Amino acid sequence: MSVKENLIDLLESIDKEIDLAGRKKDEVKLLAVTKTVDINRIKDIKEFGLHEIGENKVQEIEEKYDALKDDFEFHMIGSLQKNKINKLLGKIKLIHSLDSLSLIEALDKRLASNNMELDGLLQVNISKEESKSGFYKDEVEEVLEKMQKYKNLHILGFMTMAPFTEDEAVVRSTFRGLYELKEKMASKKFDNVNLKYLSMGMTHDYKIAIQEGSNILRIGSKIFGERNY
Ligand SMILES: *Cc1c(COP(=O)(O)O)cnc(C)c1O
């Protein structure tokens, strides 16, 4: 199937799921994950009104940036090494993968010295899998409290990845855990924090994510086909 056929299917399926969940269409954003996808195939999604793309490597953003920057805004969704911060600054709209205090500190410092600002999401390891990065749920409040020290990096929500499993209940409880964390933290006041985004749901679990309150779906292979790394 072509990218266009895939997208027609996907957009229809997302709309249907939003309806079933009793939510509003403009509440849920689709972020097309374009890692390993070449520039011409990415451009095919423009006519569907998709103008935000997610990449997980700084180098790939650098390679694609000039060709795509007029039509698309980039999101960083993969783990960021501190020594690559400089190469990323000015190129992205949102970083979904703030997964350590030392990264937050380094990023804010670099932003401040360049007189720039950036929005980001805390990556939360709800399922506590060793293989996943991110803060544990019970660390998040302390991180949000520390955000008052930083002036150039702003926290707009949370991101998580569910375990890769056919067990729907496990996936659902991961997403529900992130939603509940957001509700709880949003009832408190933190400087430099405005919790509005929940980035959760990928090709295999986006329907559950919609049901559980996601408002940014990060979907790659259902649009562009299986990746061959
Ligand atoms: C690759 C990736 C996705 C998209 O995964 P698909 O299963 O292809 O939809 C979403 N989020 C992150 C962080 C990714 O690295």
From TrEMBL:
Official protein name in the record: Pyridoxal phosphate homeostasis protein
Domain of life: Bacteria
Key words of the record: Pyridoxal phosphate
Record-listed N6-(pyridoxal phosphate)lysine modification sites: 35
Species this chain originates from: Fenollaria massiliensis
Function summary: Pyridoxal 5'-phosphate (PLP)-binding protein, which is involved in PLP homeostasis.
MF-aspect GO terms: pyridoxal phosphate binding
One Pfam family here: Ala_racemase_N
Family: Belongs to the pyridoxal phosphate-binding protein YggS/PROSC family.
Biological classification of the source: Bacteria, Bacillati, Bacillota, Clostridia, Eubacteriales
Domain Alanine racemase N-terminal: from-to ranges: 22-227
Cofactor: pyridoxal 5'-phosphate
